């Protein structure tokens, strides 16, 4: 039986007066940075797509943190109304708080932090990046809605990779417009043949490899004392 490439742990993260359920993945070999996942549109830490990406990042030596941004009762309300998944201010506050926690907690303290956002979670990740310019070093969006972070985009100076499926036409247009507003380096990658959820064979693998390469290129250990805390 093969040995897992990462050690996994479930924990509760104190963020903005609440406890978020989270799963931590720590590579068995050297760590090269940490990536925090921001879920959206009714998704959470159990998302099979984000777990697949997280596993690929673990293989590359990156710590991953997948947290539910909504509490249990909030998730139930969202399932009935779909309201909280578009409460970008709430999601952004919690992603920012998660970023602060990672900056001060083992095993992520001192590591360069990247944010991986999906759907509406991408807007929350971009706002958190704007709020934490010294801590967050790179952002990746998968099928994201960066347009929902509109006023904050010029403040995002971190390298930002926007990944969209070729057949996700409306979201492509939203990403193209948002990319022109981001303050730092921005790249738009369109995955051939992919729809919004990247369910087509081979498309999610492309997402994972693009994200891995982006984070490995841009994440670096923080000099002592250099964070936004």
Describe the protein.
This protein is of the alpha/beta class and 229 residues long. It has one domain (6-218): Alpha/Beta hydrolase fold, catalytic domain (Rossmann fold), CATH 3.40.50. Helix content is 34%, strand content 25%. It has helices at residues 48-59, 72-81, 88-104, 120-131, 169-179, 203-218; strands at residues 6-15, 18-27, 33-38, 62-67, 113-118, 136-142, 160-165, 186-191. Strands 1-2-4-3-5-6-7-8 form an 8-stranded mixed beta sheet, sandwiched between helices. The radius of gyration is 16 Å and the shape is globular.
Q: How do the helices and strands line up, and which of them pair or pack?
A:
Layout: E1 6-15, E2 18-27, E3 33-38, H1 48-59, E4 62-67, H2 72-81, H3 88-104, E5 113-118, H4 120-131, E6 136-142, E7 160-165, H5 169-179, E8 186-191, H6 203-218
Parallel strand pairs: 3-4, 3-5, 5-6, 6-7, 7-8
Antiparallel strand pairs: 1-2, 2-4
Helix pairs in contact: 1-6, 3-4
Question: Compute the gyration radius: what is it?
Answer: 16 Å
User: What's the SSE pattern?
Assistant: EEEHEHHEHEEHEH
Report the sheet-strand fraction: 15-25%
Give the overall pLDDT as a whole number: 92
> What is the 3D form?
globular
Strand ordering within the main sheet: 1-2-4-3-5-6-7-8
Binned, the helix content reads: 25-40%
CATH superfamily: Alpha/Beta hydrolase fold, catalytic domain
Largest sheet: 8 strands, mixed
Using the 3D structure, state the CATH architecture.
3-Layer(aba) Sandwich
Alpha-carbon distance between the termini? Answer: 43 Å
Q: Structural class of the helices, strands and pairings?
A: alpha/beta
Spans of at least 5 consecutive residues with low confidence: none
Total beta-strand segments: 8
Oligomer: single chain
CATH top-level class = Alpha Beta
Q: With helices defined by DSSP (H or I, 4 residues minimum), what is the helix count?
A: 6
CATH topology: Rossmann fold
| Domain count | 1
């Amino acid at each position: 039986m093969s040995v897992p490439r990462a050690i996994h742990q479930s924990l509760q993260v104190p963020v903005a007066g609440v406890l978020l359920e989270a799963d931590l993945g720590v590579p068995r070999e050297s760590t090269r940075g940490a990536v925090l996942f921001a879920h959206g549109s009714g998704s959470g830490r159990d998302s099979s797509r984000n777990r697949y990406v997280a596993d690929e990042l673990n293989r590359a030596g990156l710590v991953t943190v997948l947290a539910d941004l909504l509490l249990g009762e909030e998730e139930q309300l969202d399932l009935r109304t779909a309201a909280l998944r578009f409460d970008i201010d709430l999601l952004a506050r919690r992603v920012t708080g998660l970023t602060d926690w990672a900056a001060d907690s083992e095993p992520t303290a001192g590591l360069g932090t990247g944010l991986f956002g999906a759907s509406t979670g991408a807007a929350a990740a971009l706002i958190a990046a704007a709020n934490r310019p010294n801590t967050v070093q790179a952002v990746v969006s998968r099928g994201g809605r960066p347009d929902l972070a509109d006023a904050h985009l010029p403040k995002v100076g971190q390298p930002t990779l926007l990944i969209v499926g070729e057949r996700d036409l409306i979201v492509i247009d939203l990403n193209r417009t948002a990319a022109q507003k981001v303050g730092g380096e921005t790249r738009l990658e369109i995955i051939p043949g992919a729809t919004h959820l990247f369910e087509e064979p081979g498309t999610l693998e492309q997402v994972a490899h693009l994200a891995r390469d982006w984070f490995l290129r841009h994440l670096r250990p923080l000099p002592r004392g250099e964070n936004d805390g």
